C-alpha cells in the first residue's frame, strides 16, 4: 500500500504494485466466497457401522384380510334392509344408512372377527402372542385391519424364535372375489392407513411366507439441500397419510371410517349411500389412478428413522391356511449416521490461510489497520 499510495515512487512501480494488490484481493475474495458457500451447504460425511446388540425392538406387524367384508354379516345386514335377494358383493354402499348406520358402523358390523381369522399366534417357543404383546384394531383403505405390538425388546433371534402367525379366512363367500392377506412390517411411528395398500406384501391362502427382518438406524443432519425434522415423535409416513386424508375429505366432505377427527374436527361421517359411493370413487381416483401424489405434500423426512428391511421366502403348502413367520436373523443392525464434514474452525483456517498467502494479512495486521484508522480520524490529545 505504501508503494501504491506513495507519491515519490515511479509510476511504473506504483502500477505494478497496484496490479498485484488488485489480483491478490480478487483471488482472496473468490476463495473466501467459495469456502463460505461450501460451509453454508453443511457438507456431511456418512459413517456406517454394524453393531451387535443384546436386544432389538421388534417391528409392528399389521395385516388385513383382502376379503374386505364378512359376507355372512353383509347378508344379514341386507336382510335387515329388506334386499336380501341382492347377491352382488358391490351392494355394500347401499347398506350405509340402514337403521341410521354410518359407514363406520357398517364396517364394524361387517368386519372379520380377529379370533376366527387367527388360528394360532406364537412368539418364541411356548409363549402365545397375547402373553408378550397386544393386538389393536386399525382402520385403513383396505378395511378393518389388525396390528401386533410386542411389549418388550427381542433378546433372541432365529426363524423359530420370533413371530409365528397362522391365518385362515373361514368365509365361503368373498367380497369382489378377492382372497388372501395383506401384510405390512413397519416402524411404530409409521401410519398403516395407506401404507398397507401401497407398501404391503400379499400372503395367499395355502402359502407359507418367511420374512427375515434387518434394521437400519438412520441419524441424519438437517441441511439446506436435505432438510429434515428432528422431533422424536414426528413421522413422515403420518404426515403423508394425513395429507392424503385431508385431500380426500376436501373432495367428499364426509369422513370415511379410516379418517380420524383430526382430519376435519367438525366433519361428519359418511351416512348415505351417495356419500359413500363418492368417497370410494374419489379414493380410487386419488390413490390408484394418479390423482394424488405425496410429492404434493409439504412433508419433510424425519432426521432419526428406523427402517425395517425385509427379505422374503415363500413356499406352497397343502393346507388352506396362510402361515407367516417374522424374525431377526441375528441381533445386529446397521447404524448410519452423519457428521459435519466442514465446520467453523476449518472455515476460519481456510480464510486465514488465503489472507496470509495472498495479502500477508493476519489478526495482528487487522488490529494495526484499525489503530492507524483511529489515529488518522480521531482527535489527538496535546503532546507533552
- Helical content, roughly? 25-40%
Q: Globular, elongated, flat, extended or rod-shaped: what is the shape?
A: elongated
Number of strands: 13
Our count of helices gives 11
Radius of gyration over alpha carbons?
33 Å
Characterize the biggest β-sheet.
6 strands, mixed
Distance between the termini: 31 Å
Low-confidence stretches: none
Beta-strand content estimate? 25-35%
The overall pLDDT, averaged over residues, is: 88
Order of helices and strands: HHEEHHHEHEEEEHEEEHHEEEHH
- Class of secondary structure makeup: alpha+beta
Question: How would you sum up this structure, described in words?
Answer:
The structure is a single chain. By secondary structure, this protein is an alpha+beta fold. It has eleven helices and 13 strands. Strands 1, 3, 6, 9, 12 and 13 form a six-stranded mixed β-sheet that branches. β4 and β5 form a beta hairpin. α2 packs antiparallel against α10 and α8 packs across α9. The longest helix has 30 residues. The two termini are 31 Å apart.
Short précis:
The chain has 384 residues and is an alpha+beta fold. 34% of the residues lie in helices and 26% in strands. Strands 1, 3, 6, 9, 12 and 13 form a 6-stranded mixed β-sheet that branches.
Write the SSE topology.
Blueprint: H1 2-5, H2 11-40, E1 44-52, E2 60-65, H3 71-81, H4 103-109, H5 114-117, E3 118-123, H6 129-132, E4 133-140, E5 143-150, E6 163-167, E7 181-186, H7 192-199, E8 201-203, E9 207-219, E10 228-229, H8 236-252, H9 273-288, E11 301-302, E12 304-316, E13 322-340, H10 344-359, H11 363-377
Parallel strand pairs: 9-13, 10-11
Antiparallel strand pairs: 1-13, 2-5, 2-7, 3-6, 4-5, 6-13, 7-8, 9-12
Helix pairs in contact: 2-10, 8-9
